[in-house]
C-alpha cells in the first residue's frame, strides 16, 4: 500500500510491518505495553505531514503552514 | 440526507477479523483505495488503541455523476478514526470524506464485536449518512450513493475474508507482501 506522499511509502511500509506485528502478537493478546515502532513512526509521520501540507489536504489536527493556508475556498 | 445501514456476520473470531480489518488495504476488492496513512496513533488510559488515518481514494463515480457534480477531481480523501478495545473486544471505526465536502458528505460508522452467543463469530454493523448538498438532483444522487454503499459494503466484507484467507494460508504477515 502506498502513502499519500510518494517519498514516504518505504517509511510507511517499514512502520506498518513493525506495527502489524506488535498489534497481532502483543496488543490483541492483552500485552499492555506500547508498540516498539516509535522511531520508524516519527520518521514516517514527519514525511507524511510534509506531503499533506504540500497537497493541501484538509486533515484535522495537522498544522497548515503552507502558502495556501489563508487562501479562500475556490 | 439518506441513512443507510447493514449488518454482516464473519465466521471467524473477533481477533482474526480485527487483524484483517487493521490491514485491510490493499486488497483486490477495493482498488479505489490507493493510499493509506497513519496520521496519529496512541493508547489511552484504558488500554484502547486510537488510530487516525488518511485514506486516498480514486473517486469511482460514473461519468454522469461526475458531470452533474461538475468536478474532474478523481482523487478524494477520507479521514478515519478507529478505536480498538482488546478487553471488551470492540472495534469502532468512523470515517468521513474531507474533500469535495461542499458537494457531498458520507459519514460512516462500523462496529465489530463478537456474537453474544458465539465467540467464534463476529458481527459487523455498519451505518452511513449520505448528504448531497445544494443540488436539485440531490436525492437522486443520495439514492445512487446508498446503492453504491451496499455494493461497497459487500466488497469490504469480501476484502476482510480475502485478507484472512490469504494471510492464514501463507502464514506470513500480510504486510510483508507488496
TrEMBL record, chain A:
This is TP53-regulated inhibitor of apoptosis 1. Pfam families: UPF0203. It catalyses: a 1,2-diacyl-sn-glycero-3-phosphate(in) = a 1,2-diacyl-sn-glycero-3-phosphate(out). It comes from the Eukaryota. Transmembrane segments: none annotated. It comes from Pagothenia borchgrevinki (Bald rockcod). The keyword Iron does not apply. Keywords: Disulfide bond. Belongs to the TRIAP1/MDM35 family. The keyword Disulfide bond applies.
TrEMBL record, chain B:
It comes from the Eukaryota. PROSITE patterns: PRELI_MSF1. Residues 1-172 form the PRELI/MSF1 domain. Pfam families: PRELI (PF04707). InterPro entries: PRELI/MSF1_dom, Slowmo/Ups. PANTHER family: MSF1/PX19 RELATED (PTHR11158). This is PRELI/MSF1 domain-containing protein. It comes from Pagothenia borchgrevinki (Bald rockcod).
Amino acid at each position: 500500500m502506498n502513502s499519500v506522499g510518494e517519498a514516504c511509502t518505504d517509511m510507511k511500509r517499514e512502520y506498518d510491518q513493525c506495527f502489524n506485528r506488535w498489534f497481532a502478537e502483543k496488543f490483541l493478546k492483552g500485552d499492555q505495553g506500547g508498540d516498539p515502532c516509535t522511531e520508524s513512526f516519527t520518521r514516517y509521520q514527519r514525511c507524511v505531514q510534509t506531503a499533506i501540507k504540500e497537497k493541501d489536504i484538509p486533515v484535522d489536527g495537522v498544522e497548515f503552514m503552507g502558502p495556501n493556508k489563508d487562501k479562500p475556498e475556490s | 440526507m439518506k441513512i443507510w445501514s447493514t449488518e454482516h456476520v464473519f465466521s471467524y473470531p473477533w481477533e482474526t477479523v480485527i487483524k484483517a480489518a487493521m490491514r485491510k488495504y490493499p486488497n483486490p476488492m477495493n482498488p479505489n483505495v490507493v493510499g493509506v496513512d497513519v496520521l496519529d496513533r496512541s493508547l489511552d488510559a484504558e488500554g484502547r488503541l486510537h488510530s487516525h488515518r488518511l485514506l486516498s481514494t480514486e473517486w469511482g463515480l460514473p461519468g454522469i455523476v461526475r458531470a452533474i457534480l461538475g468536478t474532474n477531481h478523481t482523487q478524494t480523501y477520507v479521514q478515519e478514526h478507529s478505536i480498538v478495545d482488546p478487553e471488551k473486544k470492540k472495534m469502532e471505526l468512523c470515517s468521513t470524506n474531507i474533500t469535495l465536502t461542499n458537494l457531498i458528505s458520507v459519514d460512516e460508522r462500523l462496529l465489530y464485536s463478537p456474537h453474544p452467543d458465539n465467540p467464534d463469530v463476529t458481527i459487523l454493523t455498519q451505518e452511513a449518512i449520505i448528504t448531497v448538498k445544494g443540488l436539485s438532483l440531490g436525492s437522486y444522487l443520495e439514492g445512487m450513493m446508498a446503492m453504491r454503499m451496499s455494493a461497497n459494503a459487500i466488497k469490504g466484507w469480501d476484502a476482510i475474508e480475502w485478507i484472512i484467507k490469504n494471510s492464514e494460508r501463507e502464514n506470513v504477515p500480510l504486510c510483508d507482501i507488496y
